[in-house]
Amino acid sequence: MKKILLLVFFFLGGFSIAQNASDYFPSSPGAVWFYQSNMLDSLNNPIDSLGFFQKDSFATTGQYHGSNANLILSAFSSLDFIYFSRYFDSSFYYINSNKIYEYAEISDVADSLLFFFLDSTFAQQLATLDGWYPFLDFSLNVNDEVVLFEKDFTTHYDTLEINVRVKGLTKRMPDESVTVPLDTYQAVKFRNRLRFYFLVQVLPPPLPPSEIPFLSMERNVWLAENFWIVKELAPSNYYDFSEFDGPSFYTPGVVRELIDNPFPISVKDETNYPKSFELSQNYPNPFNPVTTIKYSVPSESFVTLKVYDLLGNEISTLVSQRQSPGKYKVDFDGEKLSSGIYFYTMKSGNFIDTKKMILLK
Fold first, then answer.
1. 314-323 sheet: strands from edge to edge
2. I want to staple 253 with a disulfide (CB 3.0 to 4.6 A). Which of 40, 145, 164, 216 is the partner?
3. 147 φ, ψ to 5°?
4. Burial category of 213 from C-beta neighbours within 10 Å (exposed 0-12, middle 13-18, buried 19 and up)
5. How confident is the model at residue 261 (pLDDT cuts 50, 70, 90)?
6. Residue 159 maps to a domain
7. Is the sign of the CA dihedral 50, 55, 58, 63 positive or negative?
8. Domain coverage including residue 313
9. In this structure, are 63 and 101 located in the same domain?
10. How many domains does the chain have?
């Protein structure tokens, strides 16, 4: 499944909505998302018999290929089993400035599509492109498209030597109102393409060779503030290699859309989860400089937990994400603050609660 989704990459879009990368990715691990997915036929119509469900979980943070990355685990199954399915796929992201980077394994494309056509060393060459790329670049203006990477390779088809160019591009699309099963969102949108060209020297050097496209993969991604990815569409593609006595075929596309938790808590399960929202008093209190705040979430919902000073100025956002039912705790560090009284407020739907804490140095 990862190879299908990684045939492309991803990006954002332009209403008067939040344009900061950090507003779209959860601030800390614990978020869980459910998606309804369908494979797409050659006309990009959903294939009902090939529908499935996906569960993503922001699992943890840690070092990955030289960066402090956020790990999202994914599970794929039928609706009946998705809640209990084991995670077997992973994606890695990190935010730097106003860009969200994803670790992309470009060599997966060769594994999926090109081995039958080009020699096996081509995958090894593509592996040199594996790495971190700013697929979600909020600094782009609407309709700007940039090249993320470009590299030329030499490969073979039978005894014929072929020069191939590979490009990765991303384009900031206009922001859109997008409707998915869960809700309607004002979303930013990106389109990313991975393109392959044959290089043919039509005119003599020093004139550059001509690019003849033979493979193009695309993914469109819609992201909503506080909800991460709400829709993702990788259209199907048709490929014709008959000029080289190769096959002609299409690769199916895939679309996934955010849905509500398909497994609300049953009466049998209620004893295992909090029965109501609850914000506990921080401990220790007074504190210097770190204190712990505990809170409870009875059902999957979007939760914010923020700290304010006596004048009502926001000091810190400790939590701002969709969370599964359960009990949570988060540390607040007042190392850079002056002694005094501070307030922390938890909000989720109609629930709101505020408590006082004292920093005493």
1. 314-323, 301-308, 340-348, 351-359
2. 40
3. -90, 120
4. exposed
5. confident
6. no
7. negative
8. 267-359
9. yes
10. 2
Cβ neighbour number for residue 143 with a 10 Å cutoff:
11
CATH number of domain containing 333: 2.60.40.2550
CA geometry: angle 31, 34, 38, nearest 5 deg: 145
**Exposed/middle/buried for residue 297 (C-beta within 10 Å: 0-12, 13-18, 19+):** buried
Same domain, 242 and 298: no
Q: Nearest 5°: phi and psi at 261?
A: -55, 115
Distances (CA, A) of 91 to 3, 9, 20: 12, 11, 21
Last residue within a domain, chosen from 259, 279, 306: 259
Phi, psi of 245 (to 5 degrees): 60, 25
In angstroms, the CA 148 to CA 131 distance is: 11
- Residue 162 domain flag: no
Q: Which DSSP letter does residue 26 get?
A: -
Which of 229, 198, 192 shows the shortest CA–CA distance to 214?
Answer: 198
pLDDT of residue 269: 41
5 φ/ψ angles, rounded to the nearest 5 degrees: -70, -30
Q: What's the rounded Cα separation, in Å, for the pair 191 and 10?
A: 6
Question: If you average pLDDT over each of 7-11, 21-25, 258-262, 351-355, which comes out highest?
Answer: 351-355
Indicate the residue type of 109: V
In 3D, which of 275, 24, 313, 294 has the Cα closest to residue 305? 294
> Please, what's the b/e burial string for 269-295 (b: 16 or more CB within 10 A of its CB; e: otherwise)?
eeeeebeebebeebeeeebeeebebeb
pLDDT in tens, 266-321: 333 444 578 889 999 999 999 999 999 999 998 888 899 999 998 889 999 999 88
The pTM assigned to this predicted structure is 0.70
* 211 part of a folded domain: no
Confidence (pLDDT) at 284:
93
